[in-house]
Design a protein that fits this description.
5 helices; about 220 residues; about 35% strand
């Protein structure tokens, strides 16, 4: 499967699916500088190495993995993280409240509204509490097109992430998703979840009250 999802003016977005849990690994490559951000080193280090090789042709510069960003602490999203850090010496970033649970030290603990940047683009950190305490969505705002939201396991087509039937966690997550994603970004924004296929905020927005009523 071709890993190229989007060829944007300033960068490319590639995705592969790894493991028996269909985890998405995303790679953003700045065309001008070659600097890259990988989101969720979930599993299958050889497949991630191949993804990095595939993206080498997306830039005229020398590609360099500058940052590995983790959406949340759950084991299925971090199984290749240690190996990838050791191989590339890339900087790591994750939500402050999940950082201690990761298998590597986190160089950039992130809170709501923080940004991470490489040469060529930056990502905004949106803290979405509920699936885990420190879950972060990473948002790239394309100046020439829709925003791209890498939502981890906090937002999927058809609902928010698993909160283990805890009403407090569910309401917190839905409140954060409603205010910090749907209340901030337009319907055109593309949502790239931690598992499965992408969606848009416009496709999901009509269902927010339905999700709240059903409680999951």
């Amino acid at each position: 499967m071709d890993s190229l999802l989007y060829d944007l003016p300033a960068l490319t977005i590639r995705r592969i699916s790894v493991s028996e849990m269909d985890n998405n690994v995303y790679l953003l490559t700045a065309k001008a500088s070659g600097e890259q951000v990988l989101i969720d080193a979930a599993d299958d280090f050889p497949a991630i190495q191949q993804l990095l090789q595939d993206a080498a042709g997306d830039t005229s510069a020398t590609p360099r993995l500058a940052l590995i960003a983790t959406t949340h602490q759950h084991w299925d999203h971090v199984r290749a993280l240690k190996e990838l850090v050791e191989a590339t010496e890339a900087t790591t970033a994750a939500g402050t409240d999940d950082a201690e649970a990761l298998p590597v030290p986190v160089d950039r603990p992130l809170g709501h509204g923080d940004t991470v940047a490489v040469d060529g683009f930056e990502l905004a950190a949106v803290h979405l509490r509920g699936h885990t305490p420190g879950s972060i969505a990473f948002v790239y705002e394309d100046p020439e097109g829709p925003a791209h939201i890498f939502s981890g396991d906090s937002l999927f087509p058809g609902g928010v992430g698993n909160t283990q039937k805890d009403p407090g966690r569910f309401n917190q997550l839905l409140d954060d998703v409603t205010q910090r994603l749907f209340g901030t970004y337009p319907d055109s924004a593309v949502v790239h979840p931690g598992h499965g296929k992408p969606t848009t905020l416009g496709a999901e927005r009509p269902h927010l009250e339905e999700w709240r009523a059903r409680g999951w």
